[in-house]
Amino acid sequence: MTASTITIRRATPADAGTVTAMVREIATHEDQAEHVQVTDEHWRQLLDRPEVTVLLAERDRDAIGYVSAVRQLHLWTGGDVLNLDDLYVRPGHRDAGAGRHLMAALAAVAAPEQLLIRWGMEVDNVDAQRFYRRLGATLRPKILAAWTPAAHSALAVDHGPSREPGGNAGSSPVLTSNDQL
């Protein structure tokens, strides 16, 4: 297999089944399959959203991998960034240039507006770290946190946004001196 036979294209709603299958594959590979909840129908809707980018790598019209990213406002700069969610190449197609082609295509999406592309990876995934360093990415240690609805709902009930007359229901909660952070 040569890298020249790989084509990259943007996924459309018609590709929802393919994207769903590969998302399940990467989640299974990472022992996270139980967390995948998105369906083909939901992917059809997501792939129609302008801020969602999913690029498919194909060889002989068969999907062999994808990269997904979401365009998001970055409050420090006031501009947008692309948050890379997944880069995945199916077994049997790895180490043949598909990952590099996918990253290059994502760079081409970001280049016209000079968008920063950022992502995370597991600390022990040294192969991924080596790959990204070869692309010229800067790696820095950072701890990512996740706060599930089950974990934060009790706190949210007691500290919702102020609903005072004339107040904005979407504003930040007002904390009193009795609140402990």
From TrEMBL:
The UniProt regions of compositional bias labelled Polar residues, in chain numbering, are 170-181
- CDD domains with a match to the protein in the record: NAT_SF
Q: Which GO terms describe its cellular component?
A: ribosome
Q: Where is this region: Disordered?
A: 156-181
Q: Where is the N-acetyltransferase domain?
A: 6-164
The record's annotation in Gene3D superfamilies points to:
3.40.630.30
List the keywords (alphabetical): Acyltransferase, Ribonucleoprotein, Ribosomal protein, Transferase
**In terms of domain of life, where is this protein from?**
Bacteria
The protein's GO terms of the molecular function aspect are: N-acetyltransferase activity
Q: Which SUPFAM superfamilies match?
A: Acyl-CoA N-acyltransferases (Nat) (SSF55729)
The reply on keyword Transferase is yes
Supply the name of the protein: Ribosomal protein S18 acetylase RimI
